[in-house]
Specification:
By secondary structure, this protein is an all-alpha fold. It has 3 helices and no strands.
């Protein structure tokens, strides 16, 4: 049961992450907030979404292997 709840939570957060971030972008645009808040949202996406870390690490390995 505990493993099933953990899997459901991961599925829930995985499916809602980008819609929430897009909604946050739209709210910032509609509320006419400063552009720096949009930059914070982009930074949060890059930090919180593990796929960006994986892709960045792999790109860094490719670049350093060529030298």
């Amino acid at each position: 049961m505990k493993a099933a709840l953990k899997a459901m939570w991961q599925l829930f957060t995985g499916l809602l992450f980008y819609p929430v971030m897009i909604g946050l972008f739209l709210w910032l645009y509609a509320a006419d907030k400063h552009w720096i808040f949009g930059l914070f949202v982009i930074a949060a996406i890059l930090i919180l979404d593990p796929i960006w870390r994986i892709m960045g690490r792999r790109a860094l390995e490719i670049l350093t292997a060529r030298k």
